[in-house]
Amino acid sequence: MRLLLAVVSILTHSIADPDDCSSFINRLPPNITISESTPSNTSLLEVNVNATAASTFIDQVDFYIIPSELSVFLLDHFKSLHVGNKWLLLLQKSIDVEYIYQEKNKYVLNNFQITFLCESNTKVMNVSVIDEDDNGPVFANTKSTNCTISGYTASSYREYTGKIETSPGGIEAADGDVTGNNITYSFLYGEPFGFEDYFIINPRYGHVNKTREVIEGDPHSFMMIIQATEMSTLGRTKIAVLEVGVHENIPVASSEVKANKAVLLVLQIISGIMIVAFTLGFAFIVHHRIKKHIVTPQVPDSSNTSKFDSMEAVTEDSFILENTIVLTETNQMNGGSIKDTKP
Ligand SMILES: *[C@@H]1O[C@H](CO)[C@@H](O)[C@H](O)[C@H]1NC(C)=O
Ligand SMILES: *[C@@H]1O[C@H](CO)[C@@H](O)[C@H](O)[C@H]1NC(C)=O
Ligand SMILES: *[C@@H]1O[C@H](CO)[C@@H](O)[C@H](O)[C@H]1NC(C)=O
Ligand SMILES: *[C@@H]1O[C@H](CO)[C@@H](O)[C@H](O)[C@H]1NC(C)=O
Ligand SMILES: *[C@@H]1O[C@H](CO)[C@@H](O)[C@H](O)[C@H]1NC(C)=O
Ligand SMILES: *[C@@H]1O[C@H](CO)[C@@H](O)[C@H](O)[C@H]1NC(C)=O
Ligand SMILES: *[C@@H]1O[C@H](CO)[C@@H](O)[C@H](O)[C@H]1NC(C)=O
């Protein structure tokens, strides 16, 4: 607090006192920081002025506050004052971020701007507000007690990539205060080295994704420290531990592989039978054709007819061959015992 107070009181030492609005305005700093503990009647800004020269403008120094929804509310916290040969900006009333949150429709005051006016000259000053009684984030869905670090566990499979489901619930942190600042998530640390090759964390929602397949030689258990950071001036943080175990393929997946093997075996048997049937059929056709060719010359009719007959015979044979295959296939498909036909 002592340190903050030192920061708060900005004394603008002048080489030469400002003697007009323009030089006065230029002497104001671009930003200041106020904390909740800054007491009432603290001077936030001080500018030495030559009382004689300044008298023409100093009492006309004015200011307003942005954002507009807070301008009236915050205006009575500040006062522009001219005492002797000094101009001051006084904090008349301490700022309480939680009080403003309640009074001003859940407005989270982290910073605002004061615009100073002196005749036609303006200067915008940023004011950061430090919420000192800020409680920092709290992790939800964990079995944490008051004195232990929050913990999550998850298990995944080697080949899986995507969001991992954590237990006892999803990774989630919320501001421990009424102000409800937004939270961002990040990995603070993790083991083994290189864990970030396998996992990423969504900064906004805290979801952890496994991004890569874990192969046999890779580590199968990981530990990560997740940090939740409050999006406020102080940026308070809290950590939680996530442990992830990676397992071999799910049993269902391996039975699928087995099933595929069975299907493969059936297909192999069927194609084997088809090849045999085709060979037999082909041999039959060839045999039949040779027989017909031998027979044909003995028929006294024209060679055209015999050719036709011969073609008809081939078609007929093909039909028989096709049927044989179809029957064989149907037989297998209808549950014809595979094991019996297994060579
Ligand atoms: C003041 O705040 C505005 C917006 O919040 C920012 O763009 C600007 O850089 C700040 N100026 C200083 C001097 O911090
Ligand atoms: C003013 O802003 C600068 C940069 O944004 C920062 O480093 C500095 O601490 C600020 N000063 C005060 C008094 O807030
Ligand atoms: C602040 O100063 C005013 C006069 O300038 C005085 O009336 C008031 O009591 C002071 N407040 C505190 C808290 O010191
Ligand atoms: C104050 O300003 C007046 C008028 O500009 C000038 O005569 C006088 O010397 C100044 N005094 C100091 C101490 O700078
Ligand atoms: C945690 O602390 C609060 C008060 O600080 C107390 O009421 C509560 O019983 C504590 N819980 C555990 C689990 O210790
Ligand atoms: C994380 O995984 C989910 C699916 O599980 C996906 O929709 C999302 O895009 C992934 N996020 C990143 C950053 O890869
Ligand atoms: C918090 O995040 C939400 C979106 O996630 C955004 O609309 C809102 O402006 C953020 N609040 C602050 C104070 O940054």
UniProtKB/TrEMBL annotation:
**Is Signal tagged as a keyword?**
yes
Q: Which domain of life is it from?
A: Eukaryota
InterPro entries given in the database record: Cadherin-like_dom, Cadherin-like_sf
Transmembrane intervals: 262-286
The answer, when asked if Ligase is one of the entry's keywords, is no
Give start and end of each Cadherin domain: 26-139
Q: Name one GO biological process term.
A: homophilic cell adhesion via plasma membrane adhesion molecules
Signal peptide range? 1-16
Question: What are the record's GO terms for cellular component?
Answer: membrane
Listed A to Z, the keywords are: Calcium, Membrane, Signal, Transmembrane, Transmembrane helix
GO MF annotation: an example: calcium ion binding
Protein name per its UniProtKB record: Uncharacterized protein LOC111119848 isoform X3
Species this protein is from: Crassostrea virginica (Eastern oyster)
